[in-house]
Amino acid sequence: KTFCVCILIPRSCPFKYTIYYIYISVISNHNMLKIIEGAHLACVLKKHPALDSVLHLFPENVLVSGEENIPGLVASPTGDVLLKPQTLKTLPFTLNRLTISLQPSLEKFESQLLQLINADLTFSHCFANSFASFALYCMCVSLCFFFSSTSSLPQILGLRSSLELRLTNHQALAIIFQLEYVFSTPIGRETMLSATSTSRAAFLHSLRWGIWCPFQEPAEWKGEEIQLVLQGGAKPNPHGAMVYSTEVSAKAQSPAPISAPSTAQACSAVSNFAHLEMDLQQRGGDSASLHDEGDQLQELPFTPVHAPSVVFSSRSSLAHLFSAGFPDIVDSSGQVADVLDPTEPLPFDPNREENDLQGNLLVFQFLAFTRIAAPGVGPDWPENIYFTFQFYRFPPVTSQRLKLLTGDKVQHKASNPLPCVLASINKDGTVNTGSPGLQLQFRVDDSFLKPGEKRWFLRYLALHAMHIDIWDSDSLLLIGSTAIELKYMLRQCKSAVQALHEVEVLTTDYVGEDTLLTNPDLGRHSASSPMTVHTIVRGRLHIRTGNIGKYRKTQLQLYCSIVTFLLWHNNTNVVKKATILLSILNKLFLNKPDDSDRKLKCMAAVREREASEDAKTAKVAAQSKKAQLANPSEAKSKAESIANMLSQAITTQHLLYASLGSAEYMEFVLKNPFNVPQTVTIHSDDPELSVITNTEEWRYFKALTRTPTPLEENMFHSEQGAPGPRVYLRPKESLHVPLKYQSFLCDHTMALQVWCRIKVHSHSMFYKVTFKAEDGKPMAICQVNVEPTPHVVDQTFRLYHPELCFLKKAIRLPVWHDPAPGEPQDVYLKVPGSPSPHIKMFFVMVFTDKWMAAPSQIWQIYVHFLERVDVSCVTGQRSCQSLVLRGTQAIRKVKCFSSHPGEIEVDPAGVFVLPPAAVQELQLKVQPWQAGSRFLYVNAVDVEQQRLVTAWLLCLNVHRPVLSKAFEVCVPVGGGRGSSRKITYTNPYTSSRTFLLRSDHPDLLQFKEDKFQIGGGESYTIGLRFATSQSPGSVDILVYVNNLEEKTEETFCVKVNYS
């Protein structure tokens, strides 16, 4: 049969290749098609100009016959539509109100998209040669649809006008919507996008796509709204292109005033941190108490503070910084350490790092702090600071007080603040004039690390960031937090490395919606009122990190390492000799004898000590035997002595080094010594040491620990009421019993584990597993000696809450959790309250594996309980509030501090004496300048002991004032002296009055006179001076006319247009 075949060949593909491709794709994928030997296919290639107008209807590299039903072509009466193809008539269609909704909002969708891309690149940068930050240029949809944001719903993008389409009425026709973004990344060595970057590459990538077939079903959609779900990820799509998946960040979330966007945390090299302030819920009627436990847990949405970005100071700031003369970080030979750039990718070879035989001396140098102007505080805030952080499994560190020094000869500019050099403060309050900055060191070598721990320590450096809290050492208020990446402390077999970090110090502030003073709903506030979270930059911290390799240990370190190794053995004699040797080594090295006879004196001292110990033991044994003969009633019975000896003979001891939440797996070899079968009952004296009876769990831990012993299905059987699981043993049979130790109890007083402070079994805990035969007698005993070790903290949270009230919080798990589709996972916390100023600290462990082998994240959560005070006031007007401060058992010198001195004044303002058990009344003068619900803090501090006496949480409900007049003024953009205007004010009183002028934007508006006096009924001209702006826009400035008591008489609103 002769038929017409249409093959649409791309210009880039040869015809021979196309035929071969069709042959391979057709023949090789069909088992029913067989090759006929001796047969051939004769093809004639001819041009068919009639197909030129309909080529867009045929797919590429596909055989098409004229007998097929090709969408868009009219059926031919001859049966071959390709001979003389005719297209169907097109009908006009209009798409109205085309909108795209991104969840939870457009801004957060794009922000999370960039975070995911950059986090993915950051996580994989160790295996790549280059890394650059990405930025979004614009968003578009295929066919070049242009969208603009609607005014009522900012999270929805709408088409500016209707879209006219001409379509053919065919069931196989589909309309494809494709959401694309234009990304930009710098080229070459640039790693940060800036306004001056010239070498940048932009590329288009698809994020979502959707398909709509309007003619497959009866056309009942006319005039109705059609909703399509855009798809993404590794799914087949019409364009055959890779579509980026952002399913985690684009999931539809529950409607809430504030969404909780997920951020890449644990899987990236920068661990995020977050500070949560308490919720802005107004109390209605009775306050919540500890007995009120029946409330339903409500999610408090919050925004975690993003990982602080690395900033770059100007050359003048760097010159001022390093002119202070900070000590250099040098290696063991005195050479300056190699400098690493935190903005460039760091190649990392794990094998090379593990094979490095040098020890690590990790150095943290806190150099300077750059102040950033903030509303409510002065330009010299803070004056003194201190740091708190925790590195690896070392105990938490609280640094000494540090003074911020500013050069008197250096000119400071508000646009470019210079860093303030840090100087330590002595105990007497004087500033140390020696070396500037603060240097802290941590030694991590073989004497500190346990066997096999080096790999985990290197992984900690490569993938974690160290969280640092910055505090005001005068007021004991939290300034903010930051985090530095630890991967730049990996030496890669170099003698020493260093890196200079300049990171932002961030905090969060919750602000609720403001209400007008004349609002009828004033005083009735909903507990779920909309709230906004602001991320505030409080300053920039300059810190230098370094790692110095140490080839040799001192003799004392070497000997102590040997002693530490001996102490790990379970032999009593070995432990005894090691303890004696350790005490003698300390004495010898403290006295520093000559090196020539040190070894001889050491061995002689050991023999002398052993001889004295043996003589003492023999003397004690003789006295005990003599006492037994003198008084037989007090001697132990022979049966008890034999039982004790037999118990020790069948006891096997194991030593474990366990950390919080991590499961330690072991197998005990149980042997039946009898010639008859036995059913052995396994009993553990503590639930933290248990038997693994689940076969899947057993198989999981064997694979995790790479244990080659055999695994047996259904080996244990349990009975209700039995003391433990039972196992059947044949005569003389041995089997492996899987045991697991896992503890969720943390000892906060764990001692520092370094080589110079070795304590023999100082915190050891003992657990026993008894294997009893059928007669109830023990067949074997497994004694596990557990040495608790400190754990690593991945993230720190600080929460503030009113005292004696239950804290209810919901923390959304970040993207590393990989939750189920459409189901974001939250961790709910409910913490009982405590009196002010008590601080509760606890840990939360997050597991991502089914059998909870090791926590993926350990969160350290601090809950600060404060005394709550509700204040309702109006912007620009002073309100007074009384507080009661109660004395303690001792006399104290107390001073009160506020978090916003520009808005809160405390009387008395200076230091006062608080007698024991006395009551001191404090007067708060609150004058806020920002409307809405806010949180401010007041601390009462013992200035001698630098301890917190009491803390108050001021819950401000600030209303907008009633405006008297409104004005509008235009100010030119750019340089110049600004613009001057005048406003006339008339004294409404019959007597002379003095008035004060205030503004909520003192940086944009200045008065000719801040204070004026005017007679009764007279008028006064207020002189206004508006500062210039460098960018166009508009702002509303409120002008308050207050009396001497700071009560507002009138309020003017001036709208300033910068053009």
From TrEMBL:
Q: What is a single cellular component term in the Gene Ontology annotation?
A: ciliary transition zone
- Taxonomically, the superkingdom here is Eukaryota
All residue ranges annotated as the NPHP4 C2-like domain in the record: 316-550
Q: Which residues form the NPHP4 Ig-like domain?
A: 652-790, 797-818, 820-864, 875-958, 964-1058
Q: Look up the coiled coil feature and give its residue ranges.
A: none
Biological process according to GO: negative regulation of canonical Wnt signaling pathway; protein localization to ciliary transition zone
Check the UniProt entry and state the signal peptide residues, or none. Answer: none
Pfam families to which the protein is assigned, alphabetical: Ig_NPH4_3rd (PF26015), Ig_NPHP4_1st (PF26190), Ig_NPHP4_2nd (PF26189), Ig_NPHP4_4th (PF26187), NPHP4_C2_3rd (PF26186)
Q: Which InterPro entries match?
A: Ig_NPHP4_1st (IPR058687), Ig_NPHP4_2nd (IPR058688), Ig_NPHP4_3rd (IPR058686), Ig_NPHP4_4th (IPR058685), NPHP4 (IPR029775), NPHP4_C2-like (IPR058765)
Instruction: Give the protein name, as stated in the record.
Output: Nephrocystin 4
Specify the species.
Maylandia zebra (zebra mbuna)
The taxonomy runs: Eukaryota, Metazoa, Chordata, Craniata, Vertebrata
